[in-house]
Structure formats: structure tokens, C-alpha cells
């Protein structure tokens, strides 16, 4: 069995996408082949693509997405709150500073 790899962007690049209210807009992709956080391309809207290998049942994929963001941002789990999109692919996460 192979280990699941994690691909993370630099923390500073990810923090630049957090708006003045502390919100980060993401697009989640469950059942992906790898866990990864991908920044938007230059000139594209500021939506971060978060891919996770977890299936979207009973909120497990949301927990996995938040765990990836915790690792990428280097903040405690209690600093992240899912504001919008619990059952949708497009989500808004509040990051307390």
C-alpha cells in the first residue's frame, strides 16, 4: 500500500488569498488521488483548490480539508471555521488571527 502524498504551497502565498474579513474561498475535490492544495493561476479569481482523498460522507471530507489547511497555514484547528458550503464543493473558511 502506498503512502498518500501531500502537496502544499508556501504559507505566505496562501495567506495572501485571505481577505480583510479573514475569509478564504476554496473549491474542494473529494475522492482525489492525492491530498493537495493548489493556488489559483495568475489573473484567475482567488479560489484555492483543495483536493483530498477522503470520501464526502458525514463531514469527513470537510474535516480533511480543514486539516490540510491547518497544516499549510501552520495554525491550530480551532482557528478555522467553515462559514459556508458544508455540503457544497465551493466553501468559505474563516481564519481567526
From TrEMBL:
InterPro entries: DUF167 (IPR003746), YggU-like_sf (IPR036591). It holds the Pfam family DUF167. SMART domains: DUF167 (SM01152). Belongs to the UPF0235 family. NCBIfam families: DUF167 family protein. This is UPF0235 protein GCM10011395_23910. It comes from Sphingomonas psychrolutea.
